Amino acid sequence: QVQLVETGGGSVRTGGSLRLSCTASGDNLEYYAVGWFRQAPGKGREGLACLNNLGATAFLAASVEGRFTVSRDNSKNSVYLQMDNLNTDDSAVYYCATCWAGIKEYEYDDWGQGTQVTVSP
């Protein structure tokens, strides 16, 4: 079983940027497709991205396309989420997780503790 830890969250003003990191332990990350989802208070889970084990983008949500970029470095057992041009709708807890294509949407498992992102006006 792989364990994931997210870091890099914080507070930023509208238009600012943050870079989130996710580091794996317990297993080699190169065996997994890995991505990100987020959840805001009172809202459901929103899948953001999924990368295959070689780093190719399998899924990127339209709501963040052009603003967020995802990448991975298997040699460091890490994945990243670069977030630019943030707005208040991006405020949420962000999680990295293993991912795969489900019946109607991408599914996520083995997520970490999450990291809080707060965007102020």
Explain how this protein is built.
With 121 residues, this protein is mostly beta strands. The protein is 0% helix and 54% strand. The chain contains no helices and eleven strands. It has strands at 3-7, 10-13, 18-25, 34-39, 46-51, 57-60, 68-73, 78-83, 92-101, 106-109, 115-120. The strands form two sheets. Strands 2, 4, 5, 6, 9, 10 and 11 form a seven-stranded mixed beta sheet that branches. It has a four-stranded antiparallel beta sheet with strand order 1-3-8-7, with no helix packed on it. A hairpin with a 5-residue loop joins strand 5 and strand 6. The radius of gyration is 13 Å and the shape is globular. 31% of the residues are buried. The model has no long low-confidence stretch (mean pLDDT 94).
Tags for this model:
4-stranded antiparallel beta sheet, 54% strand, single chain, 121 residues, 7-stranded mixed beta sheet
What would you say about this model in short?
This protein has 121 residues and is mostly beta strands. It contains no helices and 11 strands. A hairpin with a 4-residue loop joins strand 7 and strand 8.
Helix content: under 10%
Overall geometry: globular
Number of strands: 11
Give the count of helical stretches: 0
> How much strand content do the residues show?
over 45%
Q: Mean pLDDT, as a whole number?
A: 94
Q: Distance between the terminal alpha carbons, to the nearest Å?
A: 40 Å
Blueprint of the fold:
Blueprint: E1 3-7, E2 10-13, E3 18-25, E4 34-39, E5 46-51, E6 57-60, E7 68-73, E8 78-83, E9 92-101, E10 106-109, E11 115-120
Parallel strand pairs: 2-11
Antiparallel strand pairs: 1-3, 3-8, 4-5, 4-9, 5-6, 7-8, 9-10, 9-11
